Amino acid sequence: MPLDSPKYLVGLVDPETLAVAESEELHPTRIDYESCEILEIRYDFFDESEWQTLAARVRKIIPNVILLGTIRLRRDGGTFSNARAVERPALWKKILEAPDVPEWLDLERDCLHDYDELCELATPRGVKILVSEHNFTRIPSDLELKNYLTDAKRVKADGIKIAAMSNSDDDCTRLYKFAKKAKGFKLVAAFGMGETGKLSRVWSLKEGANLTYGSIGKAAAPGQIDVGLMRKAIDRLETTTSQIELSSFLNIF
Q1: Taking the domains of the chain in order of start, what are their residue ranges?
Q2: Which residue in 6, 77, 207, 252 is a FRET match for 184, CA 20 to 30 A apart?
Q3: CATH hierarchy code of domain 8-252
Q4: Residue 32 in contact with residue 61, Cβ under 8 Å?
Q5: How far, rounded to the nearest angstrom, does the alpha carbon of residue 208 sit from its chain's CA centroid?
Q6: What pTM, to 2 d.p., does this model score?
Q7: DSSP assignment of 4-40, as one string?
Q8: Which residues contact 125 (CB under 8 A, 6 or more apart)?
Q9: Closest Cα to residue 107, out of 75, 152, 70?
Q10: Distance between CA atoms of residues 179 and 237, nearest Å
């Protein structure tokens, strides 16, 4: 991914941040929303009775933002019980039947058996699909990452994401190699979680990825950096020559 190509910073929309962003135009949360190119609506955080209006509510605040819809089970770091995995097609249908829908939906890799059904629902609405994988224990091996890439290409996913727990200062290099090989996807995210994965959330954008995630309010994942600081770091990334230099910049704040 050329360094001068678009980079997308994603912030998470949850009930608390949405409520304050709607109520106060100059609230710091509203400013954080505006710092992001993409806002991820975590549908599993909201009561299902609100799903039909969520995309419209966010667009009313930030009209030109790209929306990414996500439903996470507990095994994926979400709130829905794992038993609800079988309900996912029906849940996606509920989201896609709304008058206003996200431009993207996030489907976990372990639910790829639902990909074709989701695609049939999403395509008529012009919605693209990002396939994601989360590993809260370790960064997968090169072979595991190769197999993941093969799976995503097989179903012709529009985007691909891997977020995995980093356990050393150098194990994110496997994710960077993965990002460089992820050709043909519109969105590519490949970063480490945890303390030793923090830098990768920004540096991955210099290593082939074009998508990364920051926190709005409370961090939603280990090692997440708030979007205000992420925005500053991304904006100066072109002139940042090393991870040491990036670390020094982040440490200032």
Answers
A1: 8-252
A2: 77
A3: 3.20.20.70
A4: no
A5: 16
A6: 0.92
A7: TS--EEEEEE-HHHHHHHHH-TT-HHHHHHHT-SEEE
A8: 96, 101
A9: 70
A10: 17
- d(CA 195, CA 223) in angstroms, rounded, equals 5
| Residue 54: how many other CB atoms lie within 10 Å | 23
Record the tokens describing residue 75, joined without a space: 């095994």
Regions of the chain short of the pLDDT cut 70: 1-4, 219-222
Write the CB contacts of 232 (distance below 8 Å, at least 6 apart in sequence): 249, 253
Q: What are phi and psi of 78, to 5 degrees?
A: -105, -160
Any residues with CB less than 8 A from the CB of 227 and at least 6 apart, and which? 9, 11, 32, 35, 36, 214, 215, 216
Beta strands in the chain (DSSP E): 8-13, 38-42, 66-70, 104-108, 128-135, 159-165, 187-193, 211-213
Dist CA 196 CA 111 (whole Å): 29
What would the pLDDT profile of 32-59 be if each residue is shown by its tens digit? 999 999 999 999 999 999 999 999 999 9
What's the DSSP call for residue 208? T
Contacts of 19-25 with C-beta under 8 Å, sequence gap 24+, read 21/61, 22/57, 22/60, 22/61
Dist CA 149 CA 209 (whole Å): 14
